[in-house]
Amino acid sequence: DAGVTQSPTHLIKTRGQQVTLRCSPKSGHDTVSWYQQALGQGPQFIFQYYEEEERQRGNFPDRFSGHQFPNYSSELNVNALLLGDSALYLCASSLRGMNTEAFFGQGTRLTVV
Amino acid sequence: GQNIDQPTEMTATEGAIVQINCTYQTSGFNGLFWYQQHAGEAPTFLSYNVLDGLEEKGRFSSFLSRSKGYSYLLLKELQMKDSASYLCAGLNQAGTALIFGKGTTLSVSS
């Protein structure tokens, strides 16, 4: 039973570029939430996708966008990268839009130079 | 607001007991989570309290008082592998988002 998988594990981008991160939820889960974790901080909620729609969004600019596919996998896109976007991006999967049993992936470490 | 506060760092020795406190503003949360996160790894679920009281699970226990906006994680019989960051997180009312504190880095020494 595969857990939450994220790709890539590490990524280096230049300021102004665009990046796409991917997440496959745990088997049987249909909801994906994305979090940004800066060094030394707790994860911050970016948004949640359920039934292929963005259901809730945290305090992040429109440069952050996402998508959920019919197989429940999800992408996080960040445009016009800033140095401050350097962080660990975590994906959490759960069931039916609820986070009472959220499982996290290993994350994608994004470095913007 | 939904601020969550927890100490930045704690130290303890092997075999000891440590209590990590977490306080939050009392409105807006639908349960309180504790996660463990080793450096460079994903957070792993430890506990979820939705009602007041103590939940015990092996060496780890978690307590919640909703009226006081207070929770703690109790770790007994500490082991070196317990050295990690411990994250307190509230679940928003809709159940759609976890609001995390900054985490408490616990260092266990021999």
Which structural traits does this protein have?
heterodimer; A: 113 residues; mainly beta; seven-stranded mixed sheet; four-stranded antiparallel sheet; B: 110 residues; six-stranded mixed sheet; five-stranded antiparallel sheet; 11 strands
Give, in order, the helices and strands of chain A. EEEEEEEEEEE
- Give the uncertain stretches of chain A in residue-range form: none
Rounded mean pLDDT score of chain A: 94
Mean pLDDT level of chain B: 93
The number of helical segments of chain A is 0
Binned, the helix content of chain B reads: under 10%
Shape of chain B: globular
- Could you name the ranges of chain B where pLDDT drops below 50 across 5 or more consecutive residues? none
Which two chains touch over the largest interface? A-B, 26 and 23 residues
Strand content range of chain A: over 45%
What does this entry show, briefly?
The complex is a heterodimer of chains A (113) and B (110). With 113 residues, chain A is mainly β. Helix content of chain A is 0%, strand content 56%.
Describe what you observe in this structure.
The complex is a heterodimer of chains A (113) and B (110). Chain A is mostly beta strands and 113 residues long. Chain A has strands spanning 5-7, 10-13, 19-24, 31-37, 44-50, 53-57, 64-68, 74-78, 87-95, 98-104, 108-112. In chain A, the strands form two sheets. In chain A, strands 2, 4, 5, 6, 9, 10 and 11 form a seven-stranded mixed beta sheet that branches. Chain A has a four-stranded antiparallel beta sheet with strand order 1-3-8-7, with no helix packed on it. The relative contact order of chain A is 0.33. Chain B contains no helices and eleven strands. Chain B has 110 residues and is mainly β. In chain B, a hairpin with a 6-residue loop joins strand 4 (29-37) and strand 5. Chain A binds chain B through residues 4, 33, 35, 40-45, 48, 55-56, 58, 90, 92, 97-107, and chain B through 4, 31, 35, 41-45, 48, 87, 89, 91-92, 94-103.
